[in-house]
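Changelog-adjacent note: as of this version, every example in the card shows the full chain rather than a window. The one below runs 193 residues end to end.
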Amino acid sequence: MAEPRAISGTQEQILDAVLSCLAEGGIAGVSMRAVATEADVSLGLLNYHFSGKQALIVTAVQMACDRLLAESMVSIDGVIGADERVRTFIRGTMAEDFLSSEYRRLRLVIWAAGRQDPEIGKTDLKFYCEYVDRMTELILEARPELSTTGARERAVDVSLTQNGLWLNWARFGDRAALERGLQRCEAIALGDG
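Full-length structure tokens:
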């Protein structure tokens, strides 16, 4: 897994402001002035750290993706047992912070923007590939009899199902359906269903 790009506290403050602007108004809601206001920094400081709106958005999307992957990775720290590590990793992307209405809006904007903007699309695809790669590794630890291809297919199927669960949650907020879906993801990954 690639290491996230090191950013300063000021840059993180600015990028968090970009994410807030994206969640509130989509790509159109991000302007240098709006970000500076949201981050409570001057336009000059903003321009010192980032070359323009495109750089701001792409870097903020990368940070959001890094955070989601990091949360999944942190969730398995100290977890004993390969099966349990798979289950915990699957649930890491459904942590409460990632089920919030602001994050849901942000993720929808990222998905939509990725279809229109090649740089955002590349960033989101990179996250997807890293997530599937890590899940594949975890599945192979739990089911070493599988081929790498078989484990990867399971990881892709889980990711597809998680995206559907996430969209269902965004639309209806049905906790019982989310839990059933996560259990099905675990069964797909571990071959128990």
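Structural remarks: The two ends are 29 Å apart (CA to CA).
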